[in-house]
Amino acid sequence: MTSEKMTQIFEAFVKRDSDRFHKIAWEIIEAEKRKKHHLLASQLKRILTENSGASNINHIQQIPPIPRDNEKGFRLLDVKKFFLDWDDVILSPNTEGVLKQIVKELENENVLATYGLKPKRKVLFYGPPGTGKTLTAKVMNSIIGYPLVFVRFESVISSYLGETASNLRKIFDFIEKGKWVILFDEFDIIGKQRDDSTEHGEIKRVVNNFMLMLENYEGDSVIIASTNHPHLLDVGVWRRFDEIVYFALPDKERRNKIFEKYLRVLKKDKNFDLTKLSEETEGFSGADIEQACIDALKMAILSGKDFISFGDVKEAVSRQEKKREAKKVIKYE
Length: 333
Ligand SMILES: Nc1ncnc2c1ncn2[C@@H]1O[C@H](COP(=O)(O)OP(=O)(O)OP(=O)(O)O)[C@@H](O)[C@H]1O
Ligand SMILES: [Mg+2]
Hints:
The chain is an alpha/beta fold.
């Protein structure tokens, strides 16, 4: 190891910069391989992959250094792994059907290939806030099994607009290095900024840039973009995706299931009327119902009960209703 590399790896360790530490460690391994020190190189590689946090994410795939924004040094993305199943998200049969078909195509990629067909890989999720778009991306990541690359748009959008384009480039360069489920969450932030008249030309260029990168992407990863402002997106966006999945607010039957799911932790009072709750919560999103259930559970638990009453949930629901009214309502249909 050269004295320069030794200094760099010490600095990375002291600064707790794990990305940089890994980058240098891999450079050292490569250098040892070039010197034909194969035993040492494989020993170092084993230590790095068996004991690092990165290997917890995926044993097979090495995580390349996470790209950062030049201006502030923020991470542009996170790599995560979830362990969820279809039961963890309650969707309309139609939405669930479309999603399961996407996964089935990916699982049977080889079969499709023999007929010259390819699975869908670029998917747009749209629908009102709190309807399970982000949660579904996590479920799909769990089932497909590739690590989830969570793109942090607040870091991607730089106050120096030239930098935004360079950040997008860095993300796509990272994506090329592996097989991932990539979530461009709340992706409308790019679209929203197009209305900024002062920087209109520059923003438009960035949006077009992103669309072009998306269109040109031909790798094995799955790209999911999610938004709750579809009308803000450039019309050209739609045709760049292989599938567009709408996440509706839950209907009565779905609301019933969501209440059931989030109230599972406590026994219910004898006269608990789940059907009535579902009927009275029209317009609630999954996230609204979850929040009401959490509030009700806390109330019950902290008042020393080991069961939950209908009244507890009714009260939490009406509080959630007031919060919803306070929020700006966005019309979808
Ligand atoms: N359909 C659903 N089934 C089960 N839980 C749900 C559902 N929708 C929302 N939730 C609960 O609400 C939380 C927030 O939902 P999520 O972040 O997935 O919504 P979203 O559609 O991505 O919203 P936004 O458009 O605001 O990003 C979830 O983590 C989950 O706990
Ligand atoms: Mg979301």
